[in-house]
Amino acid sequence: MKFYDMALAPSPRRVRMFIAEKGIDIPVVQVDLRGGEHLRPEFAKLNPWCTVPVLELDDGTCISEAIACCRYLEAAFPEPPLMGATPVEQGVIAMWEHRVEWDGFIAGAEMLRNSAERLKGRALTGAESFEQIPELAERGRKRIAVLYEMLDKRFGESEYLAGDSFTVADITALIAIDFVRRQKLEIPEERPHVQRWHDAISARPSAQL
User: Fold this and answer.
1) pLDDT of 92-101, one tens digit each?
2) Do the Cβ atoms of 53 and 12 come closer than 8 Å?
3) What Å distances lie between residue 44 and 15, 51, 69, 105, 163, CA to CA?
4) What is the pLDDT of residue 126?
5) Peptide bond preceding 87: is omega within 30 degrees of 0, i.e. cis?
6) Is 158 helix (H, G, I), strand (E, B) or coil?
7) What does R_g of the chain's alpha carbons equal in angstroms?
8) Which CATH class for the 2-76 domain?
9) How far is CA 135 from each of CA 67, 111, 115, 138, rounded to the nearest angstrom?
10) Spans in the chain with pLDDT lower than 70
């Protein structure tokens, strides 16, 4: 198995953390996104959507999309469970993971890709090119403010996002927050529960990768 990664990109970091929490050793191939390596025909054979991360299995099967990679790894390496051990846990974790991906990760991508000069003509990831829409960048900023409010309420009543234990939902939430913090949207002072949670999750060894 191989893991196609890009060290500075948030999406593959989700899978890196998941791999580390599972204690799995997988060879890593770094993909030069800035150099356009992901758009070359050789990489498109692995992933026609031309994005990272990608897991290439020993039989040649390629799995792209961060959460899909995590689902495969959870099934192949079930301990420790990061996506739930019971139907209830699995449903609740999936709910929260999707919520922070949509309200945090996607909102952050809207901000960045519709405002950064270097991403003109590349407002969406993938093989096709799309022009920026500045209004989406502003909408993304407003969505992040709502995210912080929602998370502060949640972390005021729960140690982790989906319950009493660390899960993939916490991984996605951490990386979404770190992603928008790089765009100067820090955790507001009036959201102390988010800060407490962020400090705790950031201290995990997997978060250093």
Assistant:
1) 999 999 999 9
2) yes
3) 20, 9, 17, 24, 39
4) 79
5) no
6) coil
7) 17
8) alpha beta
9) 28, 9, 9, 5
10) none
What's the whole-model pTM score? 0.93
- What the block records as the tokens of 73 is 């790894």
pLDDT at 38: 94
Sequence ranges of the domains in the chain: 2-76, 87-208
Which distant-in-sequence residues (6+ apart) come within 8 Å of 197 by Cβ?
151, 155, 159, 160, 161, 170
pLDDT on residue 73: 98
Structure-token pair, residue 110: 């809207």
Question: What does the pLDDT look like over 137-168, one tens digit per residue?
Answer: 999 999 999 999 999 999 999 999 999 999 99
- Strand locations in the chain (E): 2-5, 28-30, 54-56, 62-64
Please determine, looking at this structure, whether the domain spanning 87-208 carries the CATH number 3.60.15.10. no
